[in-house]
Amino acid sequence: MDAYKQSGVDLKEAERLNKILSRKIKDKNISEFVGSVDYNGIKIYNCCDGIGTKIIPLYKRKRYADIAQEVVAANLNDMATRDVMALGFSDYIAVNKLDSDAISSIIIELKKVLEQCNCRLLGGETSEMPDILRDGVIDIAGFAIGAGGGELQKIETGDILIGLKSSGVHANGFSLVRKLYNDCQLSDKEFETCLVPTYIYYNTIRKLWNANLIKAGANITGGGLIENLSRIVEVSRLEFFKQNIPQQPIFQCLHELVGDEIYNVFNCGVGFCIFAAPQNKEKIFEICKEFTPFELGRIII
């Protein structure tokens, strides 16, 4: 994990933080993709996420619609891991110096993307902090709330793991991507490939939940495939068919540059995973055809 650490991100320290929190805070919500609370018999769900340093090149290039898509994807893909309907969304944008034209464009685009997911923009906060952020840099985070049953079904021996193709590196590992690019190890074309917007799987996965075709979902974000799947099931129970993952040249390129470390940083071609009974495979493949579904594994224990 040297390359990522050299770019400024220490995965071992992040792992240490997670261990401290799991030891000190006895609440399973801490490790979930989306947390929940009961209120007068209604289960309310919440998640929050940002888009990391991918926002730096996107903001510099004035790709405001892509920023909006990234922050919605970061949150609603998490929410899609359970049978939860996203109802409302809030944003937090921190800036060095307020550019009303740029920030209003991001928020207007954010509203458009959320409307496509039948989710309402509830408002947010914009904070001008010149002592914290350098000139020309902003940060953004989103907060989604939802409601629904949300309980995961029991995952049993013989169940299958279905993967959905990623659009590329999504919004994870961009400190490393940017360092490789700044060091001239990635070409302009390869860097542009990394900027392709993250897929929003939410609407498609909602169709699976509504048809009772899915037992659980995993959003493959920071930490890579194994770490995110382990939030749902012990990885020792899984037999993987990694040869079925659609090959994308950008990951082959990144592997040549930093080796096997990419498996702890990037999604490596798998953007979202579905746990399901094997008899539902054909229907799931049809509903998810937009994202090139493939059988990634099977529960063997």
In CATH terms, the superfamily of the largest domain is PurM-like C-terminal domain
Low-pLDDT sequence parts: none
By secondary-structure content and strand pairing, the structural class works out as alpha+beta
In percent terms, what proportion of residues is strand? Answer: 15-25%
Number of helices: 11
| Average pLDDT taken over every residue | 94
DSSP helix fraction: 25-40%
Please write the string of helix (H) and strand (E) elements: HHEEHHEHEEEHHHEHEHEHE
Strand order of the largest sheet: 1-2-5-3-4
Query: How many strand segments?
Result: 10
Overall geometry: globular
Largest β-sheet summary:
5 strands, mixed
Q: How many separate structural domains?
A: 2
What is the annotated CATH architecture of the largest domain? Alpha-Beta Complex
CATH topology of the largest domain: Phosphoribosyl-aminoimidazole Synthetase, Chain A, domain 2
List keywords for this structure.
301 residues; alpha+beta; 60s Ribosomal Protein L30, Chain: A; Phosphoribosyl-aminoimidazole Synthetase, Chain A, domain 2; 2 domains; five-stranded antiparallel sheet
Structure description:
The chain has helices at 2-6, 11-24, 55-60, 64-79, 100-116, 174-182, 188-194, 202-210, 224-229, 249-258, 281-287; strands at 35-39, 42-50, 85-95, 120-128, 138-147, 160-165, 216-219, 238-240, 270-276, 294-299. By secondary structure, the protein is of the alpha+beta class. The chain folds into two domains: 32-147, PurM-like, N-terminal domain (60s Ribosomal Protein L30, Chain: A), CATH 3.30.1330.10; 160-299, Phosphoribosyl-aminoimidazole Synthetase, Chain A, domain 2. A five-stranded mixed sheet has the order 1-2-5-3-4. Strands 7-9-6-10-8 form a five-stranded antiparallel sheet. The mean pLDDT is 94.
